[in-house]
Amino acid sequence: MTTLADLSTPCLVLDRPRLVDNLARMSAACRRNRVALRPHLKTAKSIDVARIALAGEAGGIAVSTLHEAEYFASAGLTDIQYAVSIVPDKLARVAAIETRGARVTLITDAIEVAEAINAEGERLAHKFHVQIEIDCGERRSGLAPGAPEVIAIARLLAAGTGTAFAGVMTHAGHSYACRSLVDVERVAEIERSAAVAAAEAIRAAGIRCPTVSIGSTPTALHAGHLEGVTEVRAGVYMFGDMFQAQIGSCGVEDLAVSVLAEVIGHRSDLGHILIDAGALALSKDRSTEAVPNDVGFGLIAALDGKPLSPQMRVARVYQEHGLIPVPAPLTVSDFPIGTKLRVYPNHVCMTAAMYPSYNVVDGGHEVTEIWARTNGW
Amino acid sequence: MTTLADLSTPCLVLDRPRLVDNLARMSAACRRNRVALRPHLKTAKSIDVARIALAGEAGGIAVSTLHEAEYFASAGLTDIQYAVSIVPDKLARVAAIETRGARVTLITDAIEVAEAINAEGERLAHKFHVQIEIDCGERRSGLAPGAPEVIAIARLLAAGTGTAFAGVMTHAGHSYACRSLVDVERVAEIERSAAVAAAEAIRAAGIRCPTVSIGSTPTALHAGHLEGVTEVRAGVYMFGDMFQAQIGSCGVEDLAVSVLAEVIGHRSDLGHILIDAGALALSKDRSTEAVPNDVGFGLIAALDGKPLSPQMRVARVYQEHGLIPVPAPLTVSDFPIGTKLRVYPNHVCMTAAMYPSYNVVDGGHEVTEIWARTNGW
User: Fold this and answer.
1) Which of A238, A267, A285 is the C-terminal boundary of a domain?
2) Which among A217, A337, A340 is the top mutation candidate for probing chain B, defined by the most B β-carbons within 10 Å of its own β-carbon?
3) Is B47 helix (H, G, I), strand (E, B) or coil?
4) What's the gap in Å between the CA of A39 and the closest CA on chain B?
5) Residue A377 is assigned to a structural domain of this protein
6) B253 with B206, same domain?
7) What DSSP letter does each residue of A24-74 carry, written as one string?
8) How far is B354 from B374, CA to CA, in rounded Å?
9) How many Cβ atoms from other residues are within 10 Å of residue B368's Cβ?
10) Residue contact A318–B173, C-beta within 8 A
C-alpha cells in the first residue's frame, strides 16, 4: 500500500470524492438549465478524469490544443470541440484525427480563415465542421453578435463543399472579474443572450444553426436560465482552485487537486519555512492577487488536506523553493524538516500542467490509483 | 530541410550561435576571476546544451532537482551538485545515482539534517558529500557566515563515517533586485565575502574546506574579483531572457531562446492580434514588471528573431491565447492570420520548462537539430 507519505515530492494529489462531487454539481446545474454539458478537458488533460466527467452526459468534450484532441481521440472519444481559433496550417492535423473516426469541431471568427478551411476541405475531399466564435464582452476574440460577418461566415461555411456550419460559441471569460454571485448571474445572461442573438440572426438569414455553445465555470454554475443555449462548456469546475473558491464557484473544502510538498528548510530567525514546491511546481499564477484574500502562490494544508490556517500561504516562490511565513500561534518548530504538506494552488489549470500524472486518493492517505495526464502541444 | 515556418506552434527555438557566444562570455568571466565554472543546468535541462557548456570547463554541473541529477548522471556526467537543501527521505535516490558512478554533492543548513545524512550513510555503508549553505543576504535559506552552526555542521560532516564535508556554497539571488552594474558588483562582493568568511571560520576551527562555491548570473558576470572562491554556478546566462537583458546581464540581441508562435486571430476594432502562445506556452512570470521597460509576458520578434518594435509585447495571456496590442505605426493588418512570430520570454527558466525539446537554428530559419530537454521531478 502506497500512502501520500511515501511519495517523492513535489507531485499532484487528486481527491476522487471531491472530484465526483464537483462533477455532480455541474451536471445538476446543466440538467436544471436543460442544456448538454461538454466538459472542457484543458484543466484535467486526463482520459481517466474525462471518463468520470462524461458519465451520464452526451459524450462531447472541449479541448484547448490539438495535442489534447489527438490524445482524447486516441482514447476513443469521438465528439471533440477544439475551442481555440483554428489556423489553416493546422488543418492537416485535424484531418488526420478525423480520418481515425473522431469529429473535431473547429472555431473561427475570420472570413479569410473560413475560406481557407473550405479550400483545404475541397482539396482533401474532407468536410470540416466549423463554429463561429462570438464575443460576449470578454474583448479577446470573436465577432459581435450583430456583426454582418457572422452571417457572411455562416453562409460560406453552410454552402462550402469542404465545410459544414456547426453553430455558434462564446466564452464569458470576463466572469472571472466578478466578485459576487449576482454579478456572475448578470454576466451569464450577457453570455447567453449574445450567443442566442447570433444564432437567431443566422437563422433569420435562412441558415440552420444547430449548436449554441457557451461556457465558463462561474456562469455555467450560476446562470439564471439558459433558454436558447444547447450546450455548456466548463473545465476548472472539476478540481476547483483558490481563485474559484474566492469568486464563489466552490469552497476550499471542495478543492480536489493539491500539490504534495515537503518541508526542506527553516529560518527561525525570519519566521519562515521552505518547501520543495516553488515556481515550477506551483506556477507563477497570481490570480488571487485580484481577490480580497490573497493566498500568494497557494494555501497550505496538512497531509490530510485540512488548511492549517487561513493565513498560511506560499508567499514567495523561487524555481524550486516555496517560502511560507509561519503565522502565529504556529511556529517554525511545528514543521520539522521532512514534514509533508499540501498546497491548494491559485489556478489549477496552470499548476497541473507541470505534472505527468495524478496520485488519486479516496479522501484518505492511501494512493489508490495513478492517472496519467497529457501536456504540451 | 525543415525551417521554422514548417514547425507546429508553439515550440521553442534555440539559436546556437547566440548560445555559444553567451557560454564564451561566462567562461571568459570565470577565467578572468580564476575560478572554475559549474554550469547550472536548471535552465537548459538538456545534455546537448550541457556538453557545449562544459567544453573547456572542469566538468562539474549544478542541478535543481534529483530528476535532473538522474538524467545528467545517466548521460555520463559524474560531478553533480544538487543545489537545493537535501531532505533525509531523498537520500535513497541520491545513493542510487552514486552507485552508478556519479558524485552528487548535497547541501544543507540544518544540523539535524547533517546528523540524518550521516546516519543514513552509515546504514548504507555509503559516504555522502555535503556542503553547507550560507545566506549572503538573499534571506531565503542558509546560515549566516559567522553562525556557530556552520562550524558545528562542518565538524559533524567531517567526522561522520557516512559523510564527507565538501565545503560551503551561497547564492546571491538578491542580485536580481539590482538595477545597475555598480549595484551588481556590490552584491557580488557581499556574496564572495560571505562564502569566504564562512570557509575561513571553518578552516580556523581546523577543518579542511575544499570548495567555496558562489553564483548567480549577474554576479558571476560582473564580480570585481573572486579571491578565495573556487567555483561559480550560473544557469540563465546560457540563454538570457528579457529580465536579464534589463538588469544588464545581456542584450536583447543575445537572447538564445524564443517561443515560436502563430497569429491565430485579429481584433482590428480593438487594435490587437492573438497568438497561440498563452500562459502555458510563455509562463505567467512577470519579472519584467519590476524593471523600467515592462514587456508584459514577452517581447515580439519577426521570424528572423529581430524585435518588431520595443513596444510590441504580449500584454495579456489566457491558457492558450496571447494578446498583443499592435503599436503604431504597425497595424493589425500587418499580421495576417498564419503569420509566425517569435516571443522572447521574461524568464526563460519558467518558459522552457513547458517544452520537451529545442528546435536548434544556426542563426537562420533552418532547423539543424532537435535537442531533448527533461522536465519534472
Assistant:
1) A238
2) A337
3) helix
4) 16
5) no
6) no
7) HHHHHHHHHTT-EEEEBTTTT--HHHHHHHHTTS-S-EEESSHHHHHHHHH
8) 10
9) 12
10) yes
pLDDT of amino acid B230: 98
pLDDT over 90 percentage in chain A: 98
User: Residue A167 in contact with residue A210, Cβ under 8 Å?
Assistant: yes
Question: Nearest residue on chain B to A347, judged by CA atoms?
Answer: B319
B270/A318 CB distance under 8 A: no
The CATH number covering residue A255 comes to 2.40.37.20
Establish if A99 belongs to a structural domain.
yes
pLDDT band at B183 (very low <50, low <70, confident <90, very high): very high
Q: What is chain B's alpha carbon radius of gyration, rounded to the nearest angstrom? A: 22
- The answer, for B289 touching chain A at a CB cutoff of 8 Å, is no
How does residue A81 score in pLDDT terms, banded at 50, 70 and 90?
A: very high
Question: Does A165 fall in a domain?
Answer: yes
Instruction: Give the closest-approach CA distance of B103 to chain A in angstroms.
Output: 21
Per-residue pLDDT tens for A31-41? Answer: 999 999 999 99
Q: Pick from A174, A216, A280 the residue to mutate for testing the B interface (most B CBs within 10 Å).
A: A280
Closest residue in A to B267 (Cα) is A141
Q: Do both B49 and B122 map to the same domain?
A: yes
The answer on B82 and B164 residing in a single domain is yes
Same domain, B204 and B299: no
The partner residue sitting opposite A84, judged by closest CB among B113, B276, B286, is B276
Q: Which residues contact A28 (CB under 8 A, 6 or more apart)?
A: none
**How many alpha carbons fall within 13 Å on the CB side of residue A294?**
7
Angstrom distances, CA of residue B183 to CA of A271, B188, B233, B346: 28, 9, 19, 21
Question: Model pTM greater than 0.95?
Answer: yes
Chain A: closest CA distance from residue B344 (Å) = 18
Q: Please state the domain count of chain A.
A: 2
Q: Which residue of A has its CA nearest to B6?
A: A89
Which structural domain, as residue segments, surrounds residue B202?
33-238
Chain A residues within an 8 Å CB radius of B279: 285, 350
| Residue B147 lies inside a defined structural domain of this protein | yes
Q: In sequence order, which residues have a C-beta less than 8 Å from that of residue B249 and are 6 or more positions away?
A: B217, B218, B221, B236, B237, B240
Flag if A280 and B353 touch (Cβ within 8 Å): yes
Residues B194 and B332 in one domain: no
Contact B123/B146 with Cβ under 8 angstroms? no
A281 neighbourhood in chain B, CB within 8 Å: 377
B170: exposed, middle or buried (C-beta count within 10 Å: 0-12, 13-18, 19+)?
Answer: buried
User: What CATH number is attached to the domain comprising B130?
Assistant: 3.20.20.10
**Is there a contact between B173 and A266 if contact means CB atoms under 8 Å apart?**
no
In chain B, residues with a C-beta closer than 8 Å to the C-beta of A323 are 140
> pLDDT tens for residues A97-110?
999 999 999 999 99
A230 and A83 fall within a common domain:
yes
End-to-end CA distance of chain A: 35
Domain boundary (B238, B269, B294) is at B238
- Condensed to tens digits (0 to 9), the pLDDT of residues A193-238 reads 999 999 999 999 999 999 999 999 999 999 999 999 999 999 999 9
**Is B227 in the same domain as B138?**
yes
- How many Å lie between the alpha carbon of A10 and the closest alpha carbon of chain B? 7
Is there a single domain that holds both residue A312 and residue A335? yes
Nearest to A168 by CA among A206, A134, A219: A134
The long-range contacts involving A246-253, CB below 8 angstroms and separated by at least 24 positions, are A246/A288, A246/A291, A246/A292, A246/A293, A247/A176, A247/A178, A247/A179, A247/A184, A247/A218, A247/A291, A248/A180, A248/A181, A248/A184, A248/A218, A248/A222, A249/A217, A249/A218, A249/A221, A250/A22, A252/A299, A252/A307, A252/A344
